[in-house]
User: Fold these one by one.
Assistant:
Number 1:
Amino acid sequence: MNNQTIPVITIDGPSGAGKGTIAQMLALDLKWNILDSGALYRTLAYFMLQQHIELKDFEENMLFIKNNFKVKFDPGTIGEPVKVIFNNDDITKKVRTEDIAKKTSDLATDPLIREFIRPCQRDFMVQPGLVADGRDMGTVIFNDAKLKIFLTASIEERAKRRQSQLKRQGSEVNMRLLLQELEERDKKDKERKHSPLKPADDSVIIDTSNIDPVGVIKAIKKFL
Ligand code: DC
């Protein structure tokens, strides 16, 4: 089937803006597939770490990586993160550590890595539809998407959300440190040369600082 006919909704925005929650709720509600592109980058970082492949050696190992990089997503249940299945192993928790987040942030600035990940992302576009969550879903990967959403929230609110998420997982993190890490990640995402984080010209921008997830879903559904 021509995949131009497969509907795609893109959800982009900075870390902590609520993309994961909203993409998950939408995918479950519409019974569509989900692509957590951040988790795809994280899985690549995890795999390279596991295989002791450094970024500078990516090109010479590309075929091996391509043949062994089989990732699936399961939207799971609301309140739990989207499940990441890598080579039949549930690695959801393993890719959500701060250590992997830092490594991923470095990988994601590399043009070769982005070129490698691009077709992997397009492969998730299957019937009945796809909700794609990331930074460049609407601007680059699915620039032909039917509906493009860009979620934002103040940095303080995003840090608070991250802190409660970490608390639920049993870790205490200093707020100042979280704010500093978010600032650094935002800067990296926005200022990188390849696919910088920005809203697509034809996107709908929603500030989630003062709206709960149900309110955000309602706002999005008006555009469907
Ligand atoms: O959303 P996240 O924190 O899981 O993303 C992990 C990293 O991957 C983050 O540094 C941004 C990067 N990323 C990206 O460059 N492009 C995407 N489409 C998704 C994530």
Note: Residues 8-211 form a domain with the Rossmann fold fold (CATH 3.40.50.300).
Number 2:
Amino acid sequence: METQVFWEERWKNSHTGWDLGAVSPPLKAYLDQIPLERRDLKVLIPGCGNGYEAIYLLENGFADITMLDIAPTAIAKLRRRLSREAPGWEAHLRLECGDFFAFSGSFDLILEQTFLCALDPAMRPDYARKMRELLAPGGKLAGVLFDRDFEGGPPFGGHSEEYQALFAPYFYIKTLAPCYNSAKPREGAEVFIILEATSPMPG
Ligand code: SAH
């Protein structure tokens, strides 16, 4: 469990430079346009970290939420915050500590933010396949991906053309476009994606 050790160390030492400290504006805007009567959809946030979106989802009537992270410290922190700020959260939200690549389930919506960039780029094809596997027919993977390079990593950078090639075998690419409502430090350096699990899963 090398990956877990790596991330747990970062959490223990508070090396969490990716953390925005609040709900991600593009994810918030995406969630806001989901009709009230559809807020029973099954939502997953993998690599959720501090998971500010969890409380936002609960406050806005989402009723079936799963937050997943490989680092026990991240999950313990989120559990404490939920208990403080969202009493009764257990009725609508599941906290899971584990490896995304070993996770199973069927979700209607998976939200991405600074998770793909946290993974070794060699894992990207496995990421695309796993995301597709975790989505129910017609389900969506939505969120933000960096559209820039970094020296070393994590975070590891990437660009639209690469994402297009990565996801096309598994998804109908509804949106893959420059993000117009990124958090300040990421302005001009992100794309927003909405990928639909419509075609049959390739063998
Ligand atoms: N999405 C959060 C956290 C991003 S950092 C945010 O935007 O603030 C990436 C997170 O992914 C870390 O919390 C790390 O512990 C987690 N992670 C890394 N590899 C993982 C894996 N294989 N499975 C689940 N979580 C993982």
Note: Residues 3, 7, 18-19, 46-50, 68-71, 74, 99-101, 113-115, 118 surround S-adenosyl-L-homocysteine (CB under 6 Å).
Number 3:
Amino acid sequence: MLYVQKFGGSSVANAERVFNVARRIADTYWKGNQVVAVLSAQGDTTDQLIQKANEINPNPSKRELDMLMSTGEQQSVALMAMALQKLGLNAVSLTGRQIGLRSSSTHGAAHIRSIDPERIYSELERNNIVIAAGFQGVNRYDDITTLGRGGSDTTAVALAAVLEADFCEIYTDVDGIYTADPHVVKTARKLDEISYDEMLELASLGAKVLATRSVELAKKYQVPLVVRSSMSDAEGTIVKEEAKVESTYISGLAMDKNVASISIIGIRNEPGMAYKMFSLLAKRKIIVDIILQSIGRGATKDIAFTVTKNDLPLAVKLLTDNRTKLGFEDISYDDRIVKVSVVGAGMASHPGVASMLFEALYAGGVNIMMISTSEIKISVLIDEREAEAAANMVHDRFFTGSAAIDARR
Ligand code: ADP
Ligand code: ASP
Ligand code: MG
């Protein structure tokens, strides 16, 4: 059998954990399997590298930042190969380029274009354990790219698809996927199974247990995943096409801290204003999420919307520079907000989910700044200081105690 096993940063954070993971890989190998392990950088190495870059230049070129960030994974794969060699096994570490991972050109957020697994196959044929660097590839100019934060998950799933692996295991610091981040919501429950679609929604709304793109790829190539702990033998959560239905129609709660809101006050109440504003941002590849427009009163109206925290400075600059052209009165922003979302495919056929959410927030005295809904999710923007308490209250409302009965089918 061929296993792809991915180990995240906390799972390889120090020498002891590196050996813990090495023993797990060795166990799989000794049982007669082939193993391709994909690793992230150790602990918070990636954050430290970004910090280092900022000390030199607060606005570094994205190419050089990728060059620097990718070294984190290169360290951990070399160390893991050394640990396995110490255990008497043949292991070889490989970079993104060596595993043949070709990506698009967008530094910092590159998409995987193709993987040529020739080198991996030849190493496996020689009975080597392959330790592949996650998160990195090379673009058509042969420059190193990275796949966006959490991108080692994406490398692992892509490799599992290309190699037609029998198993794709994502090892992390929690023992599965929960109804909410178990580090924030104490009463979060572990799920046995979850569908690709629901996991996709949770991931894109901020549940970083799996990178969004890794779930997209898993769905596209029908790669069944298991998310489990590198520190225990507890059974994990299976992510697949059709998951068995849990007793509630809400599958989970997600929180996204990477949001900021911008308010444009007193924009002219006439056709084309939204187009002029948002095309300005789109040209610079700024993704706009929730948009709120007030009902025009007389000559003016207001528009508020959200972007990621990283895009905030550029978005504010573009709008401010074009203030006269756009003809608005004032601009303000807020980056101390959090988006809390409840997700569930069963929500579409159940009225009242929104009011349960609002009721839980009202009971906790939490003010809602913006609301956005789709068929399978409702998101609210709230003050970051209230985020943890709100997440717990909302989760309890839907998942625990007698109040949660309303949410059962
Ligand atoms: P790794 O370094 O292994 O990739 P990450 O930190 O990227 O780990 O992802 C694991 C973390 O995701 C957990 O520690 C947990 O805090 C967070 N998380 C957020 N939402 C969930 C959820 N619904 N279920 C499990 N973990 C979650
Ligand atoms: N080391 C990278 C990050 O911190 C990739 C990963 O952990 O998956 O985002
Ligand atoms: Mg991760």
Note: Residues 8, 150, 153, 208 surround magnesium ion (ligand 3) (CB under 6 Å).
Number 4:
Amino acid sequence: MTRDHIAFPAGFVFGTATAAYQIEGAVNEGGRGESIWDRFSHTPGKVFEGHTGDVACDHYHRYEEDIKLMHELGIPAYRLSISWPRIFPERGKFNQAGIDFYRRVLETLHKYEIEPAVTLYHWDLPQYLQDEGGWANRATVDYFVEYATKVFRELGDLVPKFITHNEPWCASFLSYGLGHHAPGHHDWREAYAAAHHILLSHGKAVEAYRAGGYQGEIGITLNFTWVDAASHRAEDETMSRYADGFFNRWFVEPITQGRYPADMIPFVESQIGKLSYICPGDLDAIAAKVDFLGVNYYTRNVVAADPSAPLGVRMLEPPADRVTAMGWEIHPQSLYRLLNWLQTAYTGDLTLLITENGAAFQDHLVAGEVHDEERIEYIADHLEAAKRFIDEGGPLKGYYLWSFMDNFEWAFGYSKRFGLVYVDYETQDRIVKDSGKWYSEQISYHRSSQTR
Ligand code: IFM
């Protein structure tokens, strides 16, 4: 059974997404410096079976054939990220070869009429900055603005959309608090300071972009986890509100309203002490006007109050027949609810873009084919939820599927496959999965239905 295609309004953008460290490889080529993910993945015990991004999908050498494949599939937009240590391999030392590489990539995209959206930070912080505290150190904000300004100047003519940061929640809480991602720290004061500095660097980079008078658009991508209370009991409702504050509101509220959620502040201060890392003027800078908000949505969490659990919150196990290979519940209704909530509570008329949505499943390559019906179902269900929001007047203008091809899934290494294209890591062969064919047909259906 394969799914019918879904009609979207004219002008809606369909794309796919990747990130530098997850696909490029060539970590010691082109003058690139060390990133925190090189250090982390080479530290025993941090990544599944010791996998690293050293080779990844070898996209650094194969970008032309990858982009050509995107073109053959008819994909009109592509979200990629730039590796900061390719541009500034050492503090204050600019590397022209890094820019030249991305210029070649962007020119190839334009040659094939694929519109790029470029993320400046998708987690590969230069290790020399981490050696001085990384995002927990306020000085990193200025280094980010220096890097962003250089990229705007060098590549701005080829980039219609910039995204300052991908998923600040992951780059701060998951990395400095929970320790699952580089640099693998377990210090919540560092984590909250890191979150603040990432948001501040976003605001200041937006300001630098505006000052440069560029023609394109700029925004940020946040990851959202819809949160439901396990019951209507007051304790569960309270904990679900905290969980929502922790996953979502702590990030979207400063970006759109210039304040941290008031109900969360006493709770956070009880954990980490006063938020003394916030300086006068920071919140105004963070709330710099953006052209769009990028929304990454994969799953929801159901939470219950449990005094015996850490912080008194327990996440319920999702139903086993409704999860992806990541163990994440498949819940497309919550994408619809999330988009509505964002628009009503925070973003109003601001353009929303789904900058990531997709699923890992256990793919099997059999006789040169991958029959991934579950991924088709997942994508179609989420597109239907997105379409419902648009039909009701919601300002959603694009959808970038994660991911174009299988790649290095951070702490899970190569064990989780999210791609529309299967990557054989032994041979570096690319094999279009059934979902890739379906998505390609969805895009041509979209093109032809616009002209009807
Ligand atoms: O692979 C990641 C991506 O780098 C950021 N968002 C979530 C994806 C799937 O986990």
Note: Residues 15 and 75 are 6 Å apart (CA to CA).
